[in-house]
Design a protein that fits this description.
alpha/beta, Cytidine Deaminase, domain 2, 7-stranded mixed barrel, 3 helices, globular
């Protein structure tokens, strides 16, 4: 289980990459993985959304998931979470997100309405009883 940091430092290039992927994928949901260490996010890796209905949900391509985990090993970075977009503009996790979330300490970044928000799944969280907001700090 990952540390439960309440804020993560993230560079503008990472946020721009996530937002560009979200815009390109619309009206489908974009998805990918975020890499970093400690309380830092330093890369976003796009993935193919293999969900049966990608306009209503996301499922990260398993081959990309395995490859990124493998590549992160030994690099000093780890997969700190994933991102996906909400083409409907909702910046909070959906009920579907809450149903699929595992309380493993990883981040859920959501790209919506030109912004990226961050969340962590936690029992009893204020959003759908499952998510707690995490601050993204420019850096």
């Amino acid at each position: 289980m990952m540390a439960a940091n309440t804020s993560y430092c993230v560079g503008p290039a990472v946020l721009a990459a996530i937002l560009a992927h979200a815009a390109a994928a619309a009206p489908a949901e974009a998805c990918g993985l975020v890499l970093g260490a400690e309380s830092r996010i330093d890369a976003a890796v796009p993935a193919v959304n293999v969900a049966e209905r990608p306009e209503r949900g996301f499922e990260i391509d398993p081959a990309t998931l395995l490859r990124v985990h493998r590549e992160a090993r030994g690099s000093g970075r780890s997969v700190v979470g994933w991102y996906h977009s909400h083409p409907n503009g909702a910046r909070q996790p959906s009920a579907t997100d809450a149903a699929r979330a595992v309380e493993d300490g990883r981040l859920w970044l959501i790209a919506a309405a030109g912004q990226v928000t961050a969340w962590r799944a936690a029992a009893g969280g204020p959003v759908h009883g499952r998510f707690v907001a995490v601050d993204l700090v420019a850096g």
